[in-house]
Amino acid sequence: MQAFVVPVAAEVSGTVLKFYVKNNDEVKQGQALFVIDPSQYQIALQKSRSDYESVRRSVNASAAAVEAAKTNHVMAEQDARRQVQLYAEDPGAISVRRLENAQATRVQAHSQEKAAEALLVGLTKQVFKFSKLAFDCTNR
């Protein structure tokens, strides 16, 4: 029987806690050779899970903020239209300042809606990144 001596290295770094083989032992494919301390990887995994949950909660809050911004935008749009209609029917019914405020509120509500949507997109990309990372780690 011919045997080959092959150098062996772990795929990850860490402290070796236990050896199952000695130098020049015969081994079989898939056989455990040693145990590496998993504590640093467990801590990293817990942190990643915590970060993921934090981002996921932020996505949920951001989605609610988008809905609130959309509602505010609709209300501001309706109010601005009412003010314009009132002013068109009777210029003395409301002041020009009130009309301008309603139009400015409409523009501001639109901007807030777009900002909330952009934040939601950014957070959703972070969740996707975490999900992809988790998938990559579990399929090694």
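Second entry:
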Amino acid sequence: MEEIIPHLVGLLDSTRNERAYALDGLRKVLVSKGRSVLPAVLPKLTQKPVNCGTLSSLAAASGEHLSRYIDQVMDALIGALADENCSEEKLQECVIIIEEVQDDYGASLILSEILDATKEADESRRIAAAMLTKAFVTITTADYMDYYGAMFRDMLKYFFF
């Protein structure tokens, strides 16, 4: 395992076919050994320039082990979206994690991180967080009723104050 993971992570910067094989391999490893593998691959996945599609896909594959690292993952995704001026293409890559994580607990962790970002001083990060909030409520099937008040309050602050 110690030899395979660095090799697969290195292949993420290779040709399209090699990247696809590496992504598939990492996804399979994360499903079975996410607790030990996720901390090893996250530093590479969250360094700039962030490949949002890869990060979202692999983070979602790690399942319940994602909860320990959701802050790092969402920070990287929001930062990448903000760095790209919230382009539609980058947004579509970022929402992969929302599409993949459909359990109530995982979705609440993601939404909590997104809502925290709506309070940041950096306007581009607030805009990115607002776009992800919209994507979240559009896409998720998870129950997020407990967050209605916070979402409404944060969006009012963002747009009117």
